[in-house]
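Researcher: First entry.
Model:
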Amino acid sequence: MQKYGCERDCLSSSSNDDKVSVRFALSRALRNGKVLWGHFSRAIIQLDERTVVKLGHNLLLTDADITAYIQSLTNDIPAPRPLGAISIGKTTYIFITFIKGSSLDKLWSSLSTEEKIFIQDQLDIILEKLRMLPLPSHFLGSGNPPYCIDCRI
């Protein structure tokens, strides 16, 4: 955030001036960023060549927690590395590393059957590795205490 005008200590401070600095720096970073994906009140914005931010209203921090947990156990599963998170009002911002590549939803229709099967095989391997990881808790859900949210529409 220093790059966008927030001094080093403003992220850990509780003063109102520092909170304004954080909001200003975050706003500037988002305006200068590239929107990679957006849907209703959620978006993923690339801030620079190494960093993206996932933002949205009432966004849970579980994504960052789960990704950090996976990364603590293995480097074998391709996933962005969580860098930090902040909530301002109802909006949560989760900063993660950017993984360069093409979006599968944009490529899928142009892929051959063989390429689709190859991708399916890769995803099968990744899911198999995920299923072999130990659970972080014997409770279903996340948080303290763990809870589940019914996200069905």
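Researcher: Second entry.
Model:
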Amino acid sequence: MSRASPSRALPRRLRRIALLCLLVGLVASGAAAAQTVGVEVRIILASNDPRGGIDPGLGPLAPQLRQTLGYTSYQLLNAQVGQAAPDRPWRTTVPGGRSLEIATIPTPPPAITLVVRMHAGATPLVNTTVRLTRGGQPVLVGGPPFQSGVILI
């Protein structure tokens, strides 16, 4: 059996070091991407109620609602702020006996990927993935029917 010559052993060692650096880089970037992110959630009832209008609590979100959706009434039902992480989803209740869960998926910065799920008991109602950029525009997620309209998140 012959041993590798010193000139061939050096590239092999460099490859091992490069592979080790790559693995450490992947773990470090995964750890950075898995950081906890702040979430601000507004639960909105959108309907065509003739007595409606736009709830003043929706503030700067009102023009986006009007331009994007065809409802005439938008009522803010709840607003909450929380923290979400891959191993620690943020949870809250939604009118109509529903639950909302938001978790992050590890994503290279500056993007943030959220998984948004809403359930009524064991029945899934919403299950979507949203990719955002920090400081970007709000995202509307349509939900299930409620009263005379639909829930928006």
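Model: Note on the second entry: Confidence is low (pLDDT under 50) at residues 1-33.
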